[in-house]
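Workshop exercise sheet. Pairs work together: one partner reads the sequence aloud, the other fills in the structure field after running the prediction. Swap roles for the next sheet.
Pair: D.N. / O.F.
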Amino acid sequence: MVAVAVAIAAVWLAPAALLDPRIARATGGVVRLADADGTLRQGHGNVVIGVNRIPIAWRVEFRPLLGGVLRIRLVSGSGAETPRATIAVGTDTLAFHDVDVTLPAEVLAAALDRAGAASVTGEINLKADAIEWAPGSGHGEARVIWRAARIAFEGSAVPLDLGDVKTEATASGNVLSGPLRNEGGDLALRGEWVIRAHEGAQLGLHVTPRRPGLADLERALSAIEAPDGNGWRIDWHVPLR
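Structure field:
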């Protein structure tokens, strides 16, 4: 126990600037932490995503660390009501409490780069009173809205307008899942997604054009996806590493 306490104390007082390279590596450089001041235990700085700078402050609770759980309270660094969140990370658990966070949609850039996206715009809001994902005992709900969602694809001069994309995530047992839909935009999206612990993520989506003049997109969808009625059926599976 003494050795554990000494190790925790050493990390406890480490400078907050050590967080930036770790965050950059974990996000592929999409998210950075600038102007970090304080320690890993308690500090403040600016989350940088593209041209956006979001002031935040954090505090790590000591007692949960003794049980192998990292529990962090995030608040606005400017005194605003949001962003805010309490995050607890254990060996096999991930929990969020009192969450209200809005981030620029550029946070999706690394994931959508695989689909040929040149840029991603809009803002993503995540709200959750409490949601926990743990093997066999996940529970809770979260709401996600991608407002004014737009994706520009390589080789296309006109960005794709998706309107407001919404989902409600529900954790149950080993599964995190929810419906996906949108309001407005060039395409109607209707589908379901699911993430299973130790397996992977799946997305089943029906895509229907809402307006004419999307010939390039329709040809692209026809080449890679199966036609389904007046639209296309997209089925993606991404294994978890």
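Discussion prompt: Helices lie at 2-12, 19-26, 62-66, 109-112, 215-224. What would you look at next?
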